[in-house]
Amino acid sequence: MELLSLDDFKNTKIDPNWVPFDFLLHVLDVDRRKLQKILCKKDHTGFKLRSKFNNNVGLKRKRNLKAVEEEDDGDGDRVASKLKPKRSKKQEKSVCPIPPPDLPPQFRKLIFAEMGGRGSVLMIQKTLFFSDINPTASRFSIPFSQVKTHDFLNKAEAKELDDKNYMQVRLLDPSMRGASIVLKKWFMGSSSLYVLTNTWNPVVKKNQLKKGDMVQLWCFRVKSQLWFALVKL
Predict the structure, then answer these.
(1) Is the backbone of residue 223 left (phi > 0), alpha (psi -120 to 50) or beta?
(2) What is the structure's pLDDT at 17?
(3) 26 with 136, same domain?
(4) Mean pLDDT across the chain, nearest whole number?
(5) Does the keyword Nucleus apply (predicted)?
(6) Which of 141, 139, 110 is nearest to 204 (CA)?
C-alpha cells in the first residue's frame, strides 16, 4: 500500500475548531479514498474488497472514537464534551416546583387568628429605591409591570381609582403596627402605577427602611375593609 504524501492533502480545508481527533479522522478518510482508487485500478470487479475495507475502516473508526472518549487527558475531555449530546432546556429545568411565597407566621397569626382577615394575596415584591424612602415624596410606588395581581380591588374600588380619586386603606407595617394610609392610581403616559402615600414617611422612619431593602406588599380583607401588609425580607 502506498504511503500518504502532501499531495493527498492539497484540497484539505482545515477547520480552526478541529481537535487532534478531527485531524486523525481526516487522515483516515484520505487514506481510505486513496486506497479505493488503487483497488479500482487493479480490479474493476473488486466490489467485495472495497466493501470489506469500508467495514474495517468503520469499525476501526468506532474503536478509535471509543478510546479517545475514555482518555483522561485534556484532549480527550474536549472531544468527549464535544460529542456529548446537548440537553434540551426542558431537561435542564428543575423538576421540583418552587413553592409560592407565604406570609411570615407572625403575620399570619395576627391577620387570620386575631384580626379575622381573609384572602391574602402577594401584590408585589420589590427592592426599595431612593424614591421610595425620599421624605420629600412620601410615597411607596407599585408599578403595574411588577404587580402580580390586580384582582385585589372590587369593581367599585377599581372605578374609584380609575376616576383619579383616592382610597383610605389600612396598612400593617413591618413591625405589625396598623396605620391609615392613602392608595392612589397614577397615570403616567402609557404606563400606570399604584402608590401608597400621605402617611408613608412615618412608616419609613419607624421601621428604619432604607434603599436596597427587599419588601413584599400583601393585601387582604378584614370584613369589607381593604388592608395591606408590608413585610421586610
Answers:
(1) left
(2) 67
(3) no
(4) 78
(5) yes
(6) 139
